[in-house]
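tool=predict chain=A
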Amino acid sequence: QVQLVESGGGLVQAGGSLRLSCAASGRTFSSYVMGWFRQAPGKEREFVAAIDWIGGTTYGADSVKGRFAVSRDNLKNTVYLQMNKMEPEDTAVYYCAAMYLGSWPFSTAYEYDYWGQGTQVTVSS
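tool=predict ok
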């Protein structure tokens, strides 16, 4: 079993930046593809970004390409989501997810095995 705990959410003005962190339990962190998803009230959960086992390959949704960057530190069992040039449309609860072993595509929510509790991100206009 893997536990994921997100942190770093909060309120930011449009055009600002925020960095989310996701700390994972266990000793096999490098065996998991790590992904970020988000969900606004009344909306479906959507893919944001993902990173492979080592951090050599990343993939981001079209809506965040050029603005968001995902990274990981396997020594700290932590994955990050750096969010820049934020827009009000980015307002949502952001979830960290882990896919054991994993295979392409990384954007399919049901393929992920573990999920964090979520952290609220609010972007004011």
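The longest strand covers residues 92-100. The chain has a mean pLDDT of 96.
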